[in-house]
Amino acid sequence: MATPKMHGITRASLASLDLPKDARITDVKHLASYNWIRAPSPTIAVPGSPAAWSNIKQPKQVCKNSGLIYIAQNAARHPDYPLEPLFRAVDMEKPGFDMRSVDIVSDRNNIRKLLSFIDPSTAKSGLEPFTIKVEVAGQTVILNRYETLVKEFLGPNDFRGFGHEFEKAFTKDEVAGSTGHHRIINYRFNDLNVVIRHETDGYVRAASGDDNDDDIASMLDDLSLDTRGDKPSPVSILSSKLTIKKAGKEVSLASTLEIKTRVAHKPLPMDEGVFQVPTVEDTTAVIKSWETKNQKSLGLLATLMRKIVDVVAPLGRATIKYNEGSGRLEICKTEAKDMLPRDVYMRWNKTDPDQAAASDGVAVGSDVADVADDCASKDKSDIESKKHETTLK
Question: Its domain of life (predicted)?
Answer without folding.
Answer: Eukaryota
